[in-house]
Write a structure and sequence with these properties.
- By secondary structure, the chain is an alpha/beta fold.
- The chain has one domain (about 1-150): 3-Layer(aba) Sandwich (Rossmann fold), CATH 3.40.50.
- About 30% of the residues lie in helices and about 15% in strands.
- The longest helix has 20 residues, at about 130-150.
- The relative contact order is 0.26.
Length: about 150
């Protein structure tokens, strides 16, 4: 399983992906725990193409304006990105997730199993740190990822 975070940890809640990766790195995992690879893309959604591996399940975590309450978590497939995310990439990434997934599909690099986990931001502005609502969502995202890793083990 490959877990990929997209976002800017110096831009408020856009750093939720990096915060999730930090929690996963600290997770207490048994010796026989399924393997996962953690990748922090920063704001380079186009860099997603370098990390997608057909035949391997992936999870992509990003802050996403979905019209939900701040801190809300939603999981969906890459084909739903344009419908679920109202402002793809929060305009911080040169290329949004929908475009990156579309390009990966055209290039034959799109894995069959990709789960996108979006977290509704409360604030996206210069400055380090997550809002309270998004920080409280991080453990929920970690639980979703751990369940997915076990499901694919």
């Amino acid at each position: 399983m490959k877990v990929i975070a997209v976002g800017n940890s110096f831009y408020g809640d856009d750093g939720v992906g990096a915060a999730v990766l930090a929690h996963l790195e600290q997770a207490d995992r048994g010796d026989d725990a399924p393997a996962w690879e953690l990748v922090d893309l920063g704001t380079d959604a186009l860099g997603l193409l370098e990390h997608l591996e057909p035949g391997r399940p992936h999870i992509v975590v990003d802050a996403a304006r979905m019209g939900l309450a701040p801190g809300s978590v939603a999981s969906f497939g890459p084909d739903e990105v344009k419908v679920r995310i109202l402002a793809d990439g929060l305009s911080l990434h040169g290329l949004g997730l929908a475009e990156a997934f579309g390009l990966a599909t055209r290039l034959g690099k799109m894995p069959a199993q990709v789960l996108v986990i979006g977290v509704e931001p409360a604030q996206v502005a210069a400055g380090e740190g997550l809002s309270d609502a998004v920080a409280a969502a991080v453990p929920r995202v970690v639980d979703i990822i751990q369940a997915e890793v076990l499901r694919h083990a």
